[in-house]
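Homework help thread (please don't just give me the answer)

Our assignment gives two proteins as sequence + structure token strings and asks us to describe the second one. The first is just a warm-up. Here they are:
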Amino acid sequence: MVVREPISRAVSSYCHLVRHAHLPALPLNEGLRRCFDAFELRGDPFPEANVLSYGLYGQFLRKWYASYSESRFLILSQKQMLESPGLALKQVASHLEIHPEPLLEALKDGSMKESNIGLYDPAMLRLARLGSLLKTRPIPGTSRRTPSALPSRIPGYALSRVAEIAAGIRGQKRETLTDENRAMMEHLYEADFADVRATVPAEALYWAPRAHA
């Protein structure tokens, strides 16, 4: 399991779901407000409520630990993965009881490149979402999407790629969280932090809410 500071994770999750046409392309703060409304219904409908609930690491880990030994889990942070990928891969190999050499060789020769780059620029998110609408179609009765017919996939992939390149050129312009939304998110994750501190290894816990800082 890889954990990330939960507020930045929630923002990333929201933008990811907009990018791939699972959510409408609303301004960030308006969209997050809708996610809060869905979360407070306690029905946890995917995907709005899960933008927030997936950051409740302590809550989820408590449930897993009730059924499986803690030794079955390896928990790393996104910071560890980015700053020391070689060490992280060695830890993964050790945990899985496999040889680390093939993983480390892939890291050396560049075949393991950074992937799943976030897209935060609101204008480019709308463009990428249009691309996703063209290259995928909804699966009835679910919140998932499946590839469209080939003719519409081609311009869809082109639009998505243009959005990614343009976002990089523009410097990934980002929307800023309102004070109200940030305070609501801080309160939500502060309530879970006692469980997080009890279930996440200290070396993977690189953040703390204000009340625990």
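The one we have to describe:
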Amino acid sequence: NPADLDTTFRFAEASTAAGDYEAAIGALERILFFNSQLARVHLELGILYFRLGSYAIAREHLTAAISGPDVPPEVQQRVGEFLSEADRRLNRNQFDAMVRMGMRYQTNANVAPNGTTGRFFGVDFNLPNGSGRQSDWNGFVFGVARHVYDLHRQTGESIETNIQTYYAAQIRLPRYNLGLIEIDSGPRMLLHPALWPRTTIRPYAIGGFASLGDRPYLTTWGGGLSLEAPTFFSTIAEFRFEHRRRQFHDTDLNTNVSGQSGGLTLLSGTLRRRLDMVLPGLTATLRGTLGENYTRDSAYEFTLYQVDAGLVWEFDPPIVRLPAKATIAATVSRIWTDYRTSNALYDPNIVRQDREWRFVLGVDVPVTSRIGGFVQLSYSNVDS
């Protein structure tokens, strides 16, 4: 009954909460067929088309939403933000960047064992002074940049390039200063516009470099393939295959690491679903990863299994009015690493196995539309 506006709006809201934007759009479009002047309908349609990535259509509805008289200032401001972002995304060149910096305290900055005993050629011995776990502060900076070049084709193809950089300078233990940069680039295309209109595939090339103790440590290059598609119950699924060659460099600080050089293959699957019906703004993620590492020295070859589960909640605080939503994110990871052969340098009769738990909890709070603050607590426990 399209003439029953309240019922139709409730249906559109329920469909939106369930992630079925197409159903919500269909209901609202039927309302406009009977009355094309309803600013509220144009506003909701503009937002829905924006979420689907149809920015040109979204712009038409958003402009219609504020074309009439007596538009409330808060509506004008909200529409203006969407129009500005739609214009940016309609540009062939889209660029985003984020920089995060701060101080970190680590209870085990040198990743040392809890005990004081080591093993060499199968014989236990006491570790020398200074080899145990040491706490330290570091200053760090982390940057992410993303460039998308729209090819302006009917199938929505684009070329995506991502850059990640990181550097951490230790206060007491400069031996563990860590830096890295990694770049990946490749086209994103619709797999089959007619059969799977929202399924994308992206082959990409990847390259990177890492330093440890301000010395060259690792050079890596390779490629991968990503496939992303909507599935059942408004869940987004992503499958990723990646292979890279890794070249480790021996230096005065990092001796005998070149034996780890070789190939690393990763296969992962991720499920991501919004849980607005449980809590507005809540998103759940589940990821499984299988890795195979082949090295020059067989003692470093391993098979890796990893499971990650996470929750992200975007919300408006009840007391303080913020320029954007605050975020709470929690992740738990379980990692199994099984080495294929023993390492005679440590013990020729024992094949290494690692079992690791990781827990991360973080809070991000925006201060302005571009600047925010964050606090993160992480815990890792490795049984080797």
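TA reply:
I won't write it for you, but here's a hint about the kind of observation we're looking for: Residues 340 and 352 are 8 Å apart (CA to CA).
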